[in-house]
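JOB MANIFEST
job_type = single_chain_structure
chain_count = 1
residues = 165
[input]
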Amino acid sequence: MSNRHLARTIAMQSLYQWDFLGQENVDLPRIIAFNRDEFAPDFEDGGFVQDLVDGTLRHHKEIDEIITHFAPDWPLETITIIDRNILRLGCFELKFSESVPSKVAINEAIELAKSFGGEASGRFVNGVLGAVYKDMLAKGEAKEIDKNPPKKRESEPESLPTPNA
């Protein structure tokens, strides 16, 4: 598991606990530290976890409105806590994080949903975040990183060589 995927897992579990405990008067730094110690004691990229959680919570109300708009048949309170917080995290990265390509944000959220959600969670998350992304493109809101992806390093091959048959 990559460090970034592990960070997203820790962030998602922390958001889950925040939501489960009622969102108010929750000691979030303690929850994040607990999850990091429990699931990745040697993990060193705590800053990325903190950025994910802080950003998701900073935009929480707007994110919830976006989810409600793109999942109109699913009132927010009826979406499972795990799926709701995977959607929140994915929506934060998709809409508000300029350093994460949109397709990476969507794929990472789908993988979290497949790992932690129910049988249909991956499809549900894909459907909602895919609709958000299509709406962003239709409105001309593509992220700069999607328009101008980072160039490959000189040491990276253009493509992998194929073995001789």
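[summary]
Residues 3-142 form a domain with the N-utilizing Substance Protein B Homolog; Chain A fold (CATH 1.10.940.10).
The two ends are 32 Å apart (CA to CA).
exit_status = 0
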